[in-house]
């Protein structure tokens, strides 16, 4: 009996060790210099995000949420500190390695969509798939599937200016999912959208969570906050509270 208990305990401790850290940041600081003026948007934070975790970052406007997401996704370089993704230090990778890293590992859903205005909805979704060298027919097949998934099967040939805000956001989500990345970073993905689109996007995040994606999302949306495993309250560039749910 006691041997069994020992075995069980060992199994439990092995299981605990299996939790993989997807992102780790240490003493992260980001300063923006405008003339003589310096804004410290992220102020010496340390943080770990586990694989498959759904992390919500909330905080007032100007708190530094977008800046933090950009640093976590290696879109921007920190002024000080380090960012690791699966143990690999990404904060001092060169430009080219970072571009490949981002393409393979992360999907970004930005606060203001950033679709390429001269490409159609379908071409916008094909773009990141093209960059990793997939055949044209596969690029198109995946883009068609994803546009169906975000409920825009009949907007493939539309340019961004011919789409509503909610439709643009859904194309941006399809693009973020194009290479099926393990990490999804989203900046207020349901803000300023109509009820129906917000609800559609919320359910899509629920599905991504069920599919064990690692999700980091800046939001004030109660439905998305409900899905969180961890809530980080951010203010003035600092973590003022970190709550683990469950
Ligand atoms: N590129 C930049 N150059 C200079 N200052 C910047 C830049 N980007 C952000 N800042 C400043 O850094 C601070 C944090 O900005 P950030 O956009 O990260 O905040 P936020 O929490 O995302 O706000 P919001 O909720 O309004 O989106 C702000 O004071 C902002 O003015
Ligand atoms: Mg922001």
Please give a structural write-up:
The N terminus is likely disordered. The two termini are 31 Å apart. The chain contains 8 helices and 10 strands. The protein has a 6-stranded mixed sheet with strand order 6-7-8-3-9-10. The protein has a 4-stranded antiparallel sheet with strand order 2-1-4-5, covered by helices on one side. It has one domain: P-loop containing nucleotide triphosphate hydrolases (Rossmann fold, 3-Layer(aba) Sandwich), CATH 3.40.50. Helices cover 38% and strands 28% of the residues. It is α/β, with parallel strands linked by helices and 246 residues long. Bound molecules: adenosine-5'-triphosphate and magnesium ion. Adenosine-5'-triphosphate (ATP) binds next to strand 1, strand 2 and helix 2.
